[in-house]
Specification:
Elements (H helix, E strand, L loop, with lengths): L5 E7 L7 H12 L4 E5 L20 H12 L2 E5 L9 H10 L9 E6 L5 H13 L3 E2 L5 E2 L7 H13 L2 H16 L1
Parallel strand pairs: 1-2, 1-3, 3-4, 4-5, 4-6
């Protein structure tokens, strides 16, 4: 049986280019099998502050582009740090732009977490994303505790996870969940 390719859109909750969340997303992108493509969003930092007065015909083009990229993906991967026991402001702003749109409801979502901590942010994100009607695929949850470690240790953990098949296995479970409901 030939399985159709899966297109995933990855969203990093941190805007730092050197963030561990982004590093984990890049590692997933490199480990993805040939039938899974992952695009990592770089648009969150460009989104204006959400204002309901600017929805509909007044929606900024960058918001339309962000929503269209989400809409065209088969599923989302979210990797988000915890800032002061919460969701980073820029990431929450991006979610606010999506609340009343059609691209989000029932979209499958996988969490990729780069810390041994941050469970408060994960709980808050889970609540927000479920309220937005995303379908969180729990069996695809991936946690690789690289946050707070030196660059060499992060690289070693990510390389080991790729060699051991941990990254590919999480992506496989996510792709299977997407294909089961397609």
């Amino acid at each position: 049986m030939i399985q159709r390719p899966i297109s995933l859109y990855a969203i990093c909750g941190s805007q730092r280019q050197a963030s561990t969340s982004r590093r984990l997303l890049k590692a997933l992108q490199l480990a993805a099998p040939h039938d899974i493509s992952i695009t990592i969003s770089d648009l969150i930092g460009d989104l204006p502050i959400f204002n309901p007065d600017n929805e509909g015909e007044k929606t900024p083009p960058v918001v339309e582009k962000f929503a269209a990229e989400i809409g065209s993906a088969d599923g989302l991967i979210v990797s988000c740090p915890e800032y002061a026991h919460g969701i980073p402001g820029g990431f929450k702003n991006a979610l606010d732009w999506l609340v009343s749109r059609d691209e989000i409801p029932f979209k499958p979502l996988m969490f990729a977490h780069a810390s041994h901590r941050g469970d408060l942010a994960l709980a808050l994100l889970t609540d927000v994303l479920q309220t937005m009607s995303l379908r969180i695929v729990d069996e695809a949850f991936l946690r690789l505790p690289i946050a707070g470690k030196p660059d060499e240790a992060q690289a070693s953990i990510l390389t080991q996870a790729r060699e051991d098949g941990v990254l590919r296995a999480a992506l496989g479970r996510f792709a299977d969940a997407i294909r089961e409901t397609a």
